[in-house]
Amino acid sequence: MESPIDARRRQMLFTSVAAAGLGTFTPTVLAQETAKPKPKPLPKYAAWKNAESVIVHSSNTIETRRSAFGTSMIVPNDILFVRNNLTPPEQDIVADANAWTVEIAGVRHPGKITVADLKRLGVATLPTVLQCSGNGRGFFGHKASGTQWKVGAAGCVFWSGVPVAAVVESMGGVAEGMGYMTTTGGEKMPAGVDPKTVIVERSVPVQNIKTALLAWELNGEPIPLAHGGPLRLIVPGYYGVNNVKYVDRLAFTDRETDANIQRTGYRVRDIGVKGAPDQPSMWEMSVKSWITHPAGEGPVRAGTAQVSGVAFAGVNGVKRVEVSLDGGKTWKDARFFGPDLGHYAWRQFVLPVEFKAGGNYTLVSRASDTAGNTQPELRQENERGYAHNGWRDHGVKLIVT
Amino acid sequence: MESPIDARRRQMLFTSVAAAGLGTFTPTVLAQETAKPKPKPLPKYAAWKNAESVIVHSSNTIETRRSAFGTSMIVPNDILFVRNNLTPPEQDIVADANAWTVEIAGVRHPGKITVADLKRLGVATLPTVLQCSGNGRGFFGHKASGTQWKVGAAGCVFWSGVPVAAVVESMGGVAEGMGYMTTTGGEKMPAGVDPKTVIVERSVPVQNIKTALLAWELNGEPIPLAHGGPLRLIVPGYYGVNNVKYVDRLAFTDRETDANIQRTGYRVRDIGVKGAPDQPSMWEMSVKSWITHPAGEGPVRAGTAQVSGVAFAGVNGVKRVEVSLDGGKTWKDARFFGPDLGHYAWRQFVLPVEFKAGGNYTLVSRASDTAGNTQPELRQENERGYAHNGWRDHGVKLIVT
Fold it and tell me: DSSP states of A85-124 as a string?
């Protein structure tokens, strides 16, 4: 399946600006990431996060600092980004996770099942990259509405739960004619609002049943409320929004849900155009990479250094990462390090370099995947600033002393 | 290389009790793990640990509860066991980790180097099982002195740091005639005591240079003080004590250190015998496994269940895990799940089973490694209760309602 950006490219709906390749070069990491305005406090449900390693954009959006990414493959829970579409439910829903009930519909024998009983059906462990559709929105030039994420609305984490396939099998299999898996979050609906306009309900193609999990564990601990506990749907290789939190209902359906978040939201379209169902949906993630070390927060010393970062490719594996120190004029192949955790995880890459005193460097990385895709140089302009995988904007400007 | 228990077996130094296989069967999980005495408070340097998931034995020994192990491959920092041989240094040594200095000796160009400069030399990421030599001591019958660990003085974690080989290469290579890598911890020596009697200084065979790391990161974050930050030596496949914390000095030496912790400590010998340098040292870990789900804390419901656990084999890979529900009378092969993180990590195993109402089950697991070793049924009796990998003691008694 195509990524939404590839699908959009195919549709030839580019704005003239993007088609002409006139995206401006804005790896303004030094200016924007080190000038720290008075930080917003962590919201109560995420008070346990490491405040120094994150940027609180709002009570529902928390970003991992580029400088906080380590080199241990995974992003630990206390620095992992948070993005909620609605206010999370009350904390008490994770107090007895096993008692949480989910409705399974669109199967031959529909019914409700508790997390305790899901745990009896099977267990699987899967590392995936979780990434917000708007990661990189902060690099767009047209003030796309939404959180101005740079690189930190993403993380590689371990999920553990039951394969959706095992749950469906225990309920007689998918009912006939169902092309989608439609999952509903358990957030409380605000009063006086048409639920369709706010409910978190997402549909993905039914073939994801082969890889999806209903997960109760994140990096070795019960999923915290901030990350969708007690039960979250994991659709490997898909953007974060499809990984529905606090799963209340999982249904196999003959069409996509008509909830706004699916019908008109998370659709890739030209700037100024309204969302509509015929536009590409934010499903599969595109190939992407960025440099995490050095992170560009302050000057670095001359001499040998290890330039490292992360790369992933949605449902495909990453095949190659190149690194440039001169903003893309010349490239060298980086080496992967750390274990290969499979297609849905990210790979770490490193290139040893020699930085010269007084030098000005623009570090960029460019990943290619096993399906033959390579990160483009420029972002694909689009109304909501989705799916940014242009390598130029994600660069790090560096001053060497 | 042989594990210390295998070496000891070869030396034919068994006590008559062990040789006759008369070890008593003590999988008394229900009685011992669920009867919670008033819990000791977490020590200040580890106050950030998840108190509900750990057992505080003393200010220097904290165990992960069997029921707290998840199924996400890794054990997160806040539930990982702690074992310090001395009081840890002051918290301020991790405040500026990059400034920490380590002396490198026994190389052609010896010298001191900061963590900041170590980071310039290379980067590697390695998942390993960290396990205390005395893990399982609580199952011995002779009241071996030391913390009465059951299964929770172990965890699989990601380390990131610089290969020791890269550091040594930058200093001209190992000096001639050096057979050991001898590493010294940075703890403050208590006043009025001969340092040799208390210092944490361990020697391992020099060939470990091929795999060892000087690590600054644990599971994606700077190593906390409790786990040896700012800098810890990681010797993959070796017992925890060799993974020296707060590394102050790393030296290549022609003989093992004569510090007590090496000369007479961490030596496998018969009950009642004093430690001596000719006894096997606690170096390579033996093949071992245990069941984590169900953990035996309370009855389980009849019906289908997933019996799962973890298995590892020191420097060898795990090849096979069998599970028995009847205390070892009959066995079935378990299936591995989750990614294979390499020889030094653990593998997760699972066996789907049917528990009958009113049944009494004794769940045990038995792992085999790629070198042809299989866990023995019984513990090998030894003075300090080291290296317990007998499968019988590690079982879980289960009541099904």
Answer: SS----GGGGTTGGG-EEEEESBSS-EEEEHHHHHHH--E
pLDDT (tens digit, 9 = 90+) per residue, A225-237? 999 999 999 999 9
A317 φ, ψ (degrees, to nearest 5)? -90, 155
Does position B6 have pLDDT exceeding 90, yes or no? no
pLDDT on residue A37: 67
Q: What is the pLDDT of residue A24?
A: 45
Model ipTM over 0.85: yes
Is A336's Cβ below 8 Å from some Cβ in B? no
Distance from the first to the final alpha carbon of chain B: 47
* Contact criterion met (CB < 8 Å) for B76 and A127: no
Specify whether the CB–CB gap between B129 and B317 falls below 8 A. Answer: no
Is the pLDDT assigned to residue A22 strictly greater than 50?
no
Please check whether residue A363 touches B, CB under 8 A. no
Please state the rounded mean pLDDT for residues B169-197: 97
CB pairs under 8 A between A and B: 125
> H/E element holding B262?
helix B260-263
Question: Touching check for A220 and chain B: CB below 8 Å?
Answer: yes
Token pair for B355: 């528990």
Are B304 and A160 within 8 A, CB to CB?
A: no
Q: What is the pTM of this model?
A: 0.93
Segment B256-274 shows an average pLDDT of 98
Instruction: For residue B399, give both structure tokens.
Output: 């009541």
Q: Between chains, do B220 and A72 touch, taking CB under 8 Å as contact?
A: yes
**Which of A54, A67, A72 to probe the B interface (max B CBs under 10 A)?**
A72
Chain B residues 287-316 within an 8 A CB cutoff of chain A: 303-306, 308
Query: Which of B289, B334, B341, B342 lies closest to B312, judged by CA?
Result: B289
